[in-house]
Amino acid sequence: MITKEHVSKKFDADLEEVRTSVLQMGGFVVQQIEQAVEALSTGDEQAIEQIIKNDHRVNAMQVKIDELSCQIIARRQPTAGDLRMIMTVINTITDLERIGDEAAKIARMAKLIYDTGRLKVPRFIEIKHIANLTIDMVNKALDAFARLDPSVSAKIVRQDDEVDEEFRSIIRQLITFMMEDPRKISTAIEILFVAKAIERIGDHAKNMSEYVVYMVKGKDVRHISADEIEREVNE
Hints:
GO biological process, one term: phosphate ion transport
CATH superfamily: Phosphate transport system protein phou homolog 2, domain 2
Pfam family, one: PhoU
Keywords: Cytoplasm, Phosphate transport, Transport
Function: Plays a role in the regulation of phosphate uptake.
Radius of gyration: 20 Å
Structural class: mainly alpha
Subcellular location: Cytoplasm
Largest sheet: none
């Protein structure tokens, strides 16, 4: 059992430090996404610059947690559930770092749009909706990690399917938008990059939820359907 106490209290403290650090990194990354989407709407230049600068903080968090994880492996030689937890941590922070990259990309697109004095951002309502979906996915995945709850994974996989459909809808809308007013093609393409970044965040959240299943159940549920994940979790 992952939550069992070890003979060495320091081992327990090390594991708890790593888990807490992952959740702190996750919280910061979610904040980055939220602020990037808001900056896209408002054109707040100061906020945009801060989001871009903050990306190095996300990278630093990943490096720190990687180092802590490697130290635990070297010193404690974890096995079974403890080893799965460390592997889950390493995989999870990789996805969190990439989510941070996508948030910075959204900010850079916002900067490009507003720096060039483009017209009002098209399709922002749809962008806001798909962003809310992916933020919810990331929060659910982090909560599942914190509570060692693999049951939410299938729900997140289904949400990812919804995000993919929303992304396809945005593509269709932007194509129509460009056909109606060719002067806005550049802005529409930049919004398409934003939508793709948000869609990728959903993919990373799905990955994170699948790692939780592996951590708790010892089962690799990557590349299988939501229904199959539910069966694996309930066995």
